[in-house]
Amino acid sequence: KDNTGYSLRDLFIGSEGTLGIITAATLKLFPLPAAQSTALLALASVDDAVRLLGQARQGFGAALTGFELMAGSCLRDVTRCFPQQSLPFDGESAELPWFVLLELSDSESAEHAQQRFETVLGQAIEDGTVADAVIASSAAQSKALWHLRESIPMAEKEMGKAIKHDISIPVSRMAEFVTDTNAALQQAFPGVRHVIFGHLGDGNLHYNVARGDQWSQDDLLARQDEIYALVHDAVHAVEGSISAEHGVGQLKRDALPRYQDPVGLELMHAVKRALDPHGILNPGKVLTAMQSTVASKSRP
């Protein structure tokens, strides 16, 4: 999952308005699934989450429509900031470091969905991949589980501004990245908090850094360029992307040449010059002005 610049196959998708203007769109509709099953699963490690993803893909195939990885600290932040919500676990399970929200969308029937769900999750619990599980028994319970996940950004905002990273990591190297980058951040910026959640199925991670008790918000933000560089270097080292879904915009524009292949970057500049020779389409985004608007110097 890589949103760092232009897709040369699907050129206008993700170009952030720098190559043209959308004047119409056609939507393709799909039928609603016959049944959906949702579960919140407690795990001991990211390695277990990756193992569970493999089991879910093998057991569910294309019917696997949700696989959200969340640090336990994120969900506990949600319950502290919004007391009307609660984790559906007791004791040690509620304190485990990682959780997965899993969703199956079945095209056949509720019975078929339940059977597949029980088979895959039962095996994962039996082999120790999953430490504990809560399966939604109604649409309302499923909605409540998703609300926990969707409330993480709101809880993060309640606790102060964080330094956010929208990155993607090869799934096979996800545990390595989280362990090593967490350690590197603690060594360089002792006491910062790791706010980690995302869509493990496509390797997309929201790897955010919050101030914790030892930092003021101003002190943390004063070091944000150093934190960006540390995290993005770590992403690059495991062959990931510094922008998974939110694009480059202005925030990552100047960092792009550090991590993008030079040949690919020059191709992007050539496309920009060909389609927008005067540099009038969303100027200053994605690509640096030096190369992308050369032709604009001769603008009448």
List the topology elements.
Elements: E1 35-43, H1 46-60, E2 64-71, H2 72-81, E3 98-106, H3 110-126, E4 132-135, H4 139-150, H5 152-158, E5 166-168, H6 174-188, E6 193-199, E7 204-210, H7 217-222, H8 224-237, H9 256-259, H10 262-275, H11 289-292
Antiparallel strand pairs: 1-3, 1-4, 2-3, 2-6, 5-7, 6-7
Helix pairs in contact: 1-3, 2-5, 6-8
Task: Describe the overall structure.
This protein has 300 residues and is α+β, with helices and mostly antiparallel strands. The protein has helices at residues 46-60, 72-81, 110-126, 139-150, 152-158, 174-188, 217-222, 224-237, 256-259, 262-275, 289-292; strands spanning 35-43, 64-71, 98-106, 132-135, 166-168, 193-199, 204-210. α1 (46-60) packs antiparallel against α3, α2 (72-81) packs across α5 (152-158) and α6 packs antiparallel against α8 (224-237). The relative contact order is 0.16.
Strands ordered across the widest β-sheet: 4-1-3-2-6-7-5
| Spatial extent as radius of gyration | 22 Å
* Major sheet characteristics: 7 strands, antiparallel
Number of alpha- plus pi-helical segments: 11
Q: How many β-strands, per DSSP?
A: 7
Helix content: 25-40%
Strand content: 15-25%
Termini separation: 40 Å
- Low-pLDDT residue spans: 290-300
| Protein structure class | alpha+beta
Return the average pLDDT rounded to an integer: 91
Helix/strand order: EHEHEHEHHEHEEHHHHH
What general outline do the C-alpha atoms trace? Answer: globular
